[in-house]
Design a protein that fits this description.
alpha+beta; about 20% strand; about 180 residues
């Protein structure tokens, strides 16, 4: 704001010098009041433009960080699906329900996990765990559980996983409040 006042004063001074250089006419002479009115008009134009520019910068920064956060949660979903579908291969093949429960309990320790489902190759439910509330936004994914290596791998089931976006939404709201407070 102080910079704007300096620029406004400089602009007023230059206008005054320009008009005074044209001669000594009474119409061309600026009084202090005229100078202040010109400065006020300048600030009335520049100040809103500066505020709009600041708001645009905050909006762009928020958009970029929101996209990065969504990409991160999507990567997390893919990583969990990839790793845990391999971990579940032996217990599903051997129908070791206790081991499947242990793996599921370990996965559910993650705060972002809303729920998971393990099904056999016929689509019959082996295990389902959930802690989703009705108002939670979810990011869901599915991966085949394969037993064996390479092209000889046989699909023996599916692993479904849902991640919550609650934390993402809370962080976004917090950042928006901080940005509004800064502006």
């Amino acid at each position: 704001m102080q910079y704007c006042l300096h620029v406004g004063y400089w602009f007023t001074l230059k206008c005054t010098q320009f008009l005074h250089a044209g001669g000594g006419s009474k119409a061309a002479k600026f009084t202090k009041a005229t100078s202040l009115r010109l400065q006020a008009k300048f600030l009335a134009i520049v100040a809103p433009l500066v505020l709009v520019a600041i708001a645009l910068v905050f909006a762009v920064v928020e958009w970029i960080s929101a996209n990065r956060a969504e990409e991160a949660i999507s990567r997390k979903l893919d990583q969990i699906l990839s790793i845990q579908s391999e971990v579940l291969a032996d217990p599903v093949w051997n129908v070791a329900r206790e081991q499947i429960h242990l793996v599921a309990d370990a996965i559910m320790q993650d705060e972002d996990v809303a729920g998971l489902t393990v099904r056999d190759e016929d689509g019959d439910l082996i295990l389902s765990q959930s802690r989703t509330s009705e108002d939670s936004a979810l990011l869901e994914g599915r991966r085949d559980i394969k037993f064996g290596d390479g092209e000889d791998a046989e699909v023996i089931g599916t692993f479904d996983l849902a991640l919550r976006n609650d934390r993402l939404l809370a962080e976004r709201t917090e950042r928006m409040i901080e940005a509004a407070a800064l502006a």
